[in-house]
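All the exercises in this workshop are built on plain-text protein records. An example says more than a description, so a record of this kind follows:
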Amino acid sequence: MNLSTRSLPLWAAIAALINASVWGVSWFPLKWLEARGVGSLWATWIVFAACTALVLIARPSAWKSLRAAPVLAWLGFAAGMTNACFNVSLATGDVVRVVLLFYLMPMWVVVLARWMLDEPITLGALARVALALIGAALVLSEGKMVLPIPQTTADWLAVAGGFFFGLNNILLRKYAHEPDDARALAMFGGAVVVAPAALALLWVIGKSMAFSPQPIAWLGLLLFAVAVLIGNLALQYGAARLRANVLSVLMLAEILVATLSSWLLGAAQITQATLIGGAFIVAASLLAVFSGDSKHDS
């Protein structure tokens, strides 16, 4: 059945929401696998290795395209660090705090865009940074408004994940002229390289991550890999048919999905300070989406 051009944005929006939902509930399989002998870095490595293999099977030319663009190794590093930091923080920390701190990403984009894309830092950009910092202070200090310093390893990893996510988005813009399949393969492959490197580092410092999977864990890994692949394919479909600012707003649904799912299943506590701080962080993201910085989007 042929879809009219008028119906395409609806399906594209649904696709974007599917991706946001996949990552919004990703905390559950990560914690489930952790409890069944598969540490989050091991899960990241296995899941993204499976996705990378499927991409290479479906698009064998992607490897040649990637080899012809070695600069995309930086994109792979940023994507790999994003997934490693975010997944470990989700598996070990409070889900709502982790997702909110991860979405400090617009604050990092202001600095990175100035450095890597030579974009000016405007008063609007500074206002977004201020909003994000106020939100982070509320979330991290439970409403006491002290200097927003992460308190746990999971907090630090969530902030780091948001930084690398911002770097990932900046590099996607910087290398937009490179082939789509090469960029996609670099982003999938980044986790395949970074996750085992992080595992090796943990082993060196004497903090190795468990890998003694129960038989049922392999089924969980398979289902998680399928979900991640569907989510990424849905994002590619939506991103090709939606304006960047619309896509960014839809992706914020991840915060809502993560908050509701973790609260309903008892994996997170939602305090008044968290809600208010989260509102500031979301406001900073929305201002970034609708600012003049997005006027070049078609």
Summary: Residues 180-204 form the longest helix (25 residues). Residues 8-294 form one domain.
